[in-house]
Amino acid sequence: MSQAGYTLAETLAALAILGLAVGGLTAGVGLLERGQRLTSQATVQLQAERAAELSLDRMLQGGGPFRSIEPARLTGSATAIVAECGEVAPCRIELTDGETGLGLRITRPGRVDNLPLRRSVPAGFVYRGSSSTSVTWPPDDPRRQVLRSISILRTDVQTDPLLTVRLWREQALDCIFDVVIQDCR
User: Fold this and answer.
1) pTM score, whole prediction
2) Which residues contact 30 (CB under 8 A, 6 or more apart)?
3) 1, 51, 126, 135: which one has the fewest Cβ atoms less than 10 Å from its Cβ?
């Protein structure tokens, strides 16, 4: 090696090391970008589900208790709910599966809200009463029940619900609570 400069081998080795460093940085930046995109998508998804949950909760709030012996107040199937919601006519909640994916269509007199939930996944409503769980309300179970919560579950994978609305209820002051039927007599 001469004292005046670098040899060709030393220059090539330095360029190879520099190329590896630039390649590693590029891959790292790409990985960070992908992570940020996935986090952003998950955040948007959670915000959409929370907005749908709040809308459903607001619509059913104060309408309960929904009893199995009073089917005119709330009826539900795996894809739709019709309930009293403090309006002149009953409100309707439907699961929709369109081009944008799974969503909720909430229909009130004079107003329709379409709320996105997820990309297209098979899902349905599930109703949890005081003594059983069913895909319809009122349930086929002959026992008297009070509706405790409504969930939207994926039908292909029985895992955690996409969203759950718990129905808080106020009992009348003259209520004589029966622990067996979990309701007023």
Assistant:
1) 0.71
2) none
3) 1
